[in-house]
Amino acid sequence: MTAIKETNFSFPKQTNFYKGKVRDVYTINNQFMAMVVTDRISAFDVVLPEAIPFKGQVLNQIAAKFLGATKDIVPNWVIEVPDEMVTIGRICEPFKVEMVVRGYLAGHAWREYSAGKRSVCGVSLPEGLKENDKLPKPIITPTTKASVGHDEDISKEDILAKGIVSVEDYAHLENYTYALYERGTQMAAERGLILVDTKYEFGKVGSDIYLIDEIHTPDSSRYFYAEGYAERQDKNEPQKQLSKEFVRKWLIENGFQGKDGQTVPVMTPEIVSSISDRYIELYEQITGDKFVKNEAADVVNRIEKNVADSLNQLLSA
Q: What is the value of pTM for the model shown?
């Protein structure tokens, strides 16, 4: 299958188009969004040069499953999923922060901690922790939401002081974030996994708050295998994990962390294929469902037809 690196559709009553790092977002009638999850892949806030076959299908289907499983906690933006790579939903005004929640000291938080910092986004961390240790309780470490470039750490106090989010809304975002993480943790445990950390994005329609974007996917979350976790920690061994971290580690090993002057290493067909295989493994392990590759001869035409048919029904309703 040819990976979908970009799209260029013209849908009924299309009023805008936005190209994100991974998603192509079409605004319809200033009323709906058709979000095409392409096969682009990003790491360290940089879009890598090669697209990954089936990655978009994996992410969109995982997100659809978990958004459906959490809508009793907070309403979300989804109206329907007309294609394996597309979600159509309501337009929300996004909050300019991402709510990152961590139950374990891993990834960015560990890199900060190992550099000597004992506070991440204004949240104090105890001495004596090692990489991948479970935190005393889950913590929220927000980031600013950058349209281009790197997201930046920010504290709750700064968010409120700068008026980025109101006190009342932030209280709701906090409560939703902890509740969603608890649900995600329960669902992960049923699959023999630990939800290490993840991020949620929210938006508003009028005064109503909605969960937007994707949730609990390997692009937005980090998972460990529960079996053997304690033993690996005791022996100071790396944790067996399901996340995009394996891509970041490959990049770091090849001299790239998104810093000025660094060049993305060559992504050979073998590397691209191995990343695709890992994403499919992630899908099956996280959801418990068998991944069915949609290998239609012309994926672009399939997407365009499915989305146009769905939009025509929505617009005529």
A: 0.87
